[in-house]
Amino acid sequence: MSIPKLWTLKGKKILTVDDFPGMRSMMRSMLTAYGADNITDASNGEEAIAHLSSGAFDIVLCDYNLGEGKDGQQVLEEAKERGILSYSSVFIMTTAENAAEMVMGAAEYRPDEYLSKPFTKQVLQSRLKKLLDRKESLHKIASAIQCHDYKLAITLCDSQLGQAPKNRIELLRLKGDLAIKMGEYASAADVYTEILKERDLPWAILGMSQVHFFQKKYDEAKNLLEALVNANPNYVFAADWLAKVYEKLDQPDKSQEILEKAVAKSPKAVLRQKALADISYKNNDFDTSEEAYKRVVRIGKYSCYKSPDDYAGLARVYMKKNTAVDAVKTLGAMKKEFRNSDSAVLLKATIHEAVLFKELDRPDDSRQALSTVMNIFKEDPALVPSTMAMQLAESCYEAGMKAEGDDLIRHVVRNHHDDKDIHKQVQTLLEKYDTGTDARTLISQTCEEVIELNNKGVELATKGKLHDSISLFVKAASGMPENQTINLNAAQSLIMFMQKNGPFREFMEQANHYLIRVKALGDPDEKYYKLLSIYQTLSSKA
Asked: How far apart are CA 326 and CA 320, in angstroms?
């Protein structure tokens, strides 16, 4: 007769996050009683994020209220947003609070479990044992997800599903989520249909409505979501998607109405507050927009979603309400809040400053901000998205900065060399300001430069000079982050090299970076999916 093994935490990497030393000490004592020998402590949210960034943890025990700075919800949201919390990790939120605002807010990012303080050693063991057993059954799938190999993850889900497992519903839910991520909407629909034949689970109904949304079947999505929201008024995720559907159906008033109800139930959700601020601004409801932007600025102070856009949005609301003094104060607060940020965030803040000062009829301040923007742009053009570049070019032309405006316009055309609609917008802008630059010549010459560069890179790859091809496309993609052709070819040259020489980390990460870029641009073509499939095969081998 075999003797059962004692349950132990030996070898598990554990992070405890609490602002009270006594609580951290107590949790350490509880954990070591079960053999834990690798425990890291953090006294605040910033420390927690730093530890999570430096390596994976098997278990995270994080208090909700961490004093000044990030709270537990914001630690969880940033860890998931940045991908520094593995799918196989157990994240337990500990809290002495039970306010609805806290519970709803934390639920947005689905911790694996809540533990109400005070809790006993036995309760902690019971929860950890259950969660670790569940996560262990998904270990291989989690590893594939961590490597962005969703195709392999789905294959592994199917393999486990073929064994009639106890966690069948969880595997189906995971498979549906992965299919949506891969853009395989018909496959996702099959998964949700299978589940819904058995039970009307809210998350499965939501998944099916998302499938309809991405397939542009907005009426079908609306019908499902309206019924789901009515039956489950606290299921705020469904409200978010219903608001998106109403926008697509050109019903912004209904979109705002549903967001207002959702925000009332879960006011700590920064992205939902932003959505409400934006839609109410579009609806010319500036009072609601002002209050929503104020909440975004306040609750988003320590959030990973904090952005200069929030301050700029609030400033625009003030200008619509003819309170220029408040608009200027808001710009000052934005400049102070983001003065020590990285180049990308600082650039965005300064762009908003330039545009808003122009709207406030302060040309000297606008010109000074534009000069700062152009210095950053010359150092790294990829930091300026095309929509922003067009707006900036207009500001430059109005400020008499013709050369700078032309540089920005060329940047737009390089990123969209095959987009005739963008070319028309560029031509209209240049003709509007009559700068002396011939629009058609600028567009055609810039397009020819891109085509010639692309053809050269393809020729190098065809001749087997893959290192040269990679160097050319990587450099080109750094300045043209929105050019689908260039970014796809950058990924292809890297993938071709690895097909010949085997995969290795640096090139895998670079190729994945370009594939993610292309997917983010929307509606990727057949070439993208072929490259993605080859990349995932290489990832499996790696």
From this structure: 11
The C-alpha atoms of residue 172 and residue 178 are separated, in whole angstroms, by 10
> Mind giving me the DSSP string for 444-501?
HHHHHHHHHHHHHHHHHHHTT-HHHHHHHHHHHHHH-TT-HHHHHHHHHHHHHHHHHH
Q: CA–CA separation, 173 vs 171, rounded Å?
A: 5
User: What class has domain 454-541?
Assistant: mainly alpha
Neighbouring residues of 22: CB distance < 8 A, sequence distance ≥ 6: none
Say how many Å lie between the first and final Cα of the chain, rounded.
41
C-alpha span between 20 and 61 (Å, rounded): 13
Q: Which neighbouring-strand residues pair with 59?
A: 14, 90
Architecture of domain 14-136: 3-Layer(aba) Sandwich (3.40)
List, for residues 113-162, the tens digit of each pLDDT value.
888 888 899 999 999 999 998 888 888 888 888 777 788 899 999 999 99
Token digits of residue 508: 């895998």
Secondary structure of 3-60 in the HEC alphabet? CCCCCCCCCCCEEEECCCHHHHHHHHHHHHCCCCCCEEEECCHHHHHHHHHHCCCCEE
Distance CA 357, CA 337 (A): 18
- In percent, the amount of the chain with pLDDT more than 70 equals 96
Identity of residue 433: Y
Domain boundaries, the chain: 14-136, 454-541
C-alpha span between 397 and 460 (Å, rounded): 39
Confidence of residue 1 (pLDDT cuts 50, 70, 90): very low
Q: How far apart are CA 125 and CA 494, in angstroms?
A: 47
Cβ–Cβ under 8 Å, residues 525 and 134:
no
